[in-house]
Amino acid sequence: MKNIAVLTGAGISTSAGIPDFRGPDGVWTKHPEQQSVYDIDAFLSDREAREYSWRWQKESPVWNAQPGEAHKALARLEQAGLLTLLATQNFDALHEKAGNTDKVIVNLHGTIGTSHCMKCHMKYSTADIMTRLDDEPDPHCRRRLPYSGNMPCNGLIKTDVVYFGEMLPDGAMETSMQRVCQADEFWVIGSTLEVFPAASLVPVAAQAGVPITIMNMGRTQYDRLAARLIHEDIAVALPRLVDETIAE
């Protein structure tokens, strides 16, 4: 059986109603000022910026989106025992919703599905926070701390999305690189390969001699390293590729 490693980018989620960020019609291409929504310095220092960040994320299509056919195809690939890595640059949690598990998923840029206290590291469901956002527009941690007289922690809560100025999750790139090098094939799905360090997985695969497939509507800087280029609608092309691979 083949071991397939996959990297996904925004292009896999556009058919699920989530606009990309850096494409010709991307959110940040049209509204570059909205990048501040994910600026960690602004989030930490400015209550108004925090409230705007939370509200923007709640109203974003990311929050209520459902997985598309391409996401479901990758879930089938895992169920068939062929998927060893699903590294994603997306934080929309659609791979989890589609049925992929944390045995293969590496959220390189974090996930909107969970949140945490920046002081005591208490974990929260982002959905629970969103339901209270009208009453608590600047969420703070309610955890009682025995070593502080049982007073509330009151630390800032933020989503587990990696903001500009933050480090990637511990071990995310190391795990991804290891599994890419051990794979029989490496598929890049819907990524412009402009954002590092995620994009560096392609030359890592090439150096390890792993055949690369790049499926993206536009060209990327690493097309020359690919054994196979697919410039088709991902919602159609990826399910077909998965079904063919499983059939083999």
How would you explain this protein's 3D organization?
With 248 residues, the chain is an alpha/beta fold. 33% of the residues lie in helices and 19% in strands. The chain contains ten helices and eleven strands. The chain has helices at 27-30, 40-45, 47-59, 61-64, 69-79, 94-98, 126-131, 172-182, 201-207, 234-247, and strands at 4-8, 83-88, 105-107, 110-117, 123-125, 144-145, 151-152, 157-161, 185-189, 212-215, 228-230. The strands form three sheets. Strands 3-2-1-9-10-11 form a six-stranded parallel β-sheet, sandwiched between helices. A three-stranded antiparallel β-sheet has the order 5-4-8. Strand 4 and strand 5 (123-125) form a beta hairpin. Helix 5 packs parallel to helix 10 (234-247).
Summarize the structure.
Helix content is 33%, strand content 19%. The protein is built from ten helices and eleven strands.
Secondary-structure content class: alpha/beta
**Tertiary shape:** elongated
Beta-strand portion reads 15-25%
DSSP strand tally: 11
Please give the radius of gyration in angstroms.
Answer: 19 Å
The neighbouring-strand order within the major sheet is 3-2-1-9-10-11
Helix content: 25-40%
What is the chains' assembly state? single chain
Write down the overall mean pLDDT.
Answer: 91
SSE string: EHHHHHEHEEEHEEEHEHEEH
In the predicted model, the low-confidence regions spanning at least 5 consecutive residues are none
Number of helices: 10
